Amino acid sequence: MCFAVRVITYILELAVTYITKTEVTLYFLSGLGADSRAFKYLTFPKNVKPVFIDWLTPYKNEPLQSYAKRISEKIDSSQPFILIGLSFGGILATEVLEFIKPQKTILISSVARRQELPSYYKLAGLLRLNKLLPSKATNRSNALTYWLFGITEAKDKSLLDEILTSTNTDFSKWAVNEILNWKRKTSPKNIVRIHGNKDRVLPIINFQPNHLVKEGGHFMVVNKANEISNILEVEIGAS
């Protein structure tokens, strides 16, 4: 009897060890013009493998859906995975879901359908105001940019400056146009929303986030990285 108990205990311990060590792959889509630096302060459990997807160069006048299909081909969907999109990356993630099926999709500081965009974005798209923007307008920061992103600390301003100055302006102009003219009307199922209540770039409109980050602005993945990391750990464990 004692021997049987020891065997069962040993098997259970092996099972627990296997489960806790099973690798979870997270694929990250960053914000407009940003890259993996936007996620540099996030921390992950040891069994998590983060993969930061690099942007592709859009074809001339390429629709967002076509671009999403090409991005989806950079993801190994033969194994379980979680998709995480930040800002524009979240918008793109909703389109990627048309081609692959993650265990879970997490949107950070993002929107899931056109009805969640501010009305002035939609008006700007209708009037094609984005076509009037000079190329350099998307890769410069100033006091207004810092305010919109909710940034006050010098190190955060420096990081945003660094990200924006290295932005591909052609990509940014394409992405802005796709955001302003986005057509998706329904929110995908099985998505988790993490959003700040002080987000000025994409304020909370027509949706309720699963996780509301108090005093969180559009740059909260950086300046509230500990809180975002804790939320992600909970969601990863629940997937």
Report on the structure:
By secondary structure, the chain is α/β, with parallel strands linked by helices. It has a single domain, classed as 3-Layer(aba) Sandwich (Rossmann fold). The protein is built from nine helices and six strands; from the N terminus they run αββαβαβααααββαα. It has helices at 2-21, 64-72, 88-96, 119-126, 143-149, 154-165, 169-180, 220-223, 225-238; strands spanning 24-29, 48-52, 81-86, 104-108, 191-196, 211-213. Strands 2-1-3-4-5-6 form a six-stranded parallel β-sheet. Strand 3, helix 3 (88-96) and strand 4 form a beta-alpha-beta unit.
Write the layout of secondary structure elements.
Blueprint: H1 2-21, E1 24-29, E2 48-52, H2 64-72, E3 81-86, H3 88-96, E4 104-108, H4 119-126, H5 143-149, H6 154-165, H7 169-180, E5 191-196, E6 211-213, H8 220-223, H9 225-238
Parallel strand pairs: 1-2, 1-3, 3-4, 4-5, 5-6
Give the strand content: 5-15%
Distance between the termini: 37 Å
Number of strands: 6
Question: Based on the structure given, which CATH architecture is correct?
Answer: 3-Layer(aba) Sandwich
- The CATH topology is Rossmann fold
CATH evolutionary superfamily: Alpha/Beta hydrolase fold, catalytic domain
Q: What's the alpha carbon Rg, rounded to whole Å? A: 20 Å
Q: Can you give the mean pLDDT? A: 90
Largest sheet: 6 strands, parallel
Low-pLDDT residue spans:
10-20
Helix content: 25-40%
